[in-house]
């Protein structure tokens, strides 16, 4: 006998007909504008995500067993877990990413690549690039495709070196010894009047300051821009303190009298 009492598993009208109000109030023009805006926003976010995943994968691959002190066992899988994305999903985003054009390809663009089996080496491409990476010399038969891949790998190698040198280095905010930089800034006028010895040194300094200025201007958020500036200041202070400490040690050595 059927019971007239509804069971706990019954579906509500709202669950049976989701987005009922949205469907009733739907407007063509508004829907087009909203979807267009969301699509372009998604494309931008997707490109940033794919690029970050691609760079992280390249850096971790280049480092190999030479991990940082903070993460001696940090692998690509560990990175994906820390981000909160599965390794399979991350690899899919990397396949969609085109590092040459710096964009995310549409899924249908992968079909011709798979059918052509372009992952297999084409006419010694991999051998030529590997030779250039090892010797710095471009062998005969060098192509534009070889050059693009060579520049990409060199850039990734350089990025990995910089990341290993600076990315994992903890910034000192408190110095156990003397803070030579802070002491020097108390009499900053003498350094403001400092002049370099050659024109090349002056030009190099100006170019460096221009790079720093352009780097800070790349941040749209003023608070982020300021934080990045302070971060540079702390790193500069640390480097200068290292040099000043080295000079102090050399001066102590020079002052020792030999009997």
How many strand elements? 2
Distance between the termini: 114 Å
Helix count from the secondary structure assignment: 12
Spatial extent as radius of gyration: 29 Å
Poorly predicted runs are 1-7, 116-121
> What general outline do the C-alpha atoms trace?
extended
Mean pLDDT: 75
**Quaternary arrangement of the chains shown?**
single chain
Summing up helix and strand content along with how strands pair, one would put the structural category as: mainly alpha
Fraction of helical residues: 55-70%
- The neighbouring-strand order within the major sheet is 1-2
Largest sheet: 2 strands, antiparallel
What fraction of the residues are assigned to beta strands by DSSP?
under 5%
Order of helices and strands: HHHHHEEHHHHHHH
Topology:
Blueprint: H1 13-16, H2 20-24, H3 28-63, H4 76-83, H5 87-96, E1 97-98, E2 103-104, H6 110-116, H7 125-135, H8 144-167, H9 180-185, H10 189-192, H11 199-217, H12 222-254
Antiparallel strand pairs: 1-2
Describe the protein in words.
The protein has 259 residues and is an all-alpha fold. It is 64% helix and 2% strand. The chain contains 12 helices and 2 strands; from the N terminus they run αααααββααααααα. It has helices at 13-16, 20-24, 28-63, 76-83, 87-96, 110-116, 125-135, 144-167, 180-185, 189-192, 199-217, 222-254; strands spanning 97-98, 103-104. Strands 1-2 form a two-stranded antiparallel ribbon. Strand 1 and strand 2 (103-104) form a beta hairpin. Helix 3 (28-63) packs across helix 5 (87-96), helix 3 packs across helix 8 and helix 7 (125-135) packs across helix 8. The radius of gyration is 29 Å and the shape is extended. The model is unreliable at 1-7 and 116-121 (pLDDT under 50).
């Amino acid at each position: 006998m059927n019971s007239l009492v509804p069971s706990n598993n019954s579906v509500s009208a709202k669950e049976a007909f989701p987005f009922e109000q949205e469907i009733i109030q739907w407007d063509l023009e508004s829907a087009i504008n909203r979807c267009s805006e969301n699509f372009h926003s998604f494309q931008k976010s997707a490109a940033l995500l794919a690029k970050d995943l691609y760079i992280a994968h390249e850096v971790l691959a280049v480092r190999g067993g030479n991990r940082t002190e903070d993460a001696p066992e940090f692998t690509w899988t560990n990175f994906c877990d820390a981000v909160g994305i599965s390794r399979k999903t991350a690899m899919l985003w990397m396949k969609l990413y085109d590092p040459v054009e710096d964009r995310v390809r549409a899924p249908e663009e992968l079909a011709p690549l798979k059918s052509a089996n372009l992952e297999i080496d084409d006419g010694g491409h991999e051998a030529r690039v590997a030779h250039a990476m090892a010797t710095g010399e471009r062998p005969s038969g060098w192509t534009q495709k070889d050059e693009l891949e060579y520049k990409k790998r060199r850039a990734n190698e350089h990025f990995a070196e910089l990341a290993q040198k600076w990315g994992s280095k903890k910034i000192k905010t408190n110095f156990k010894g003397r803070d030579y930089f802070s002491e020097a800034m108390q009499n900053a006028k003498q350094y403001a009047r400092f002049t370099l010895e050659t024109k090349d040194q002056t030009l190099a300094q100006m170019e460096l300051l221009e790079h720093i200025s352009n780097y800070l201007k790349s941040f749209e958020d003023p608070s982020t821009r300021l934080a990045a500036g302070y971060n540079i200041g702390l790193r500069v202070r640390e480097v200068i303190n290292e040099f000043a400490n080295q000079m102090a040690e050399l001066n102590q050595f020079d002052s020792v009298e030999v009997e």
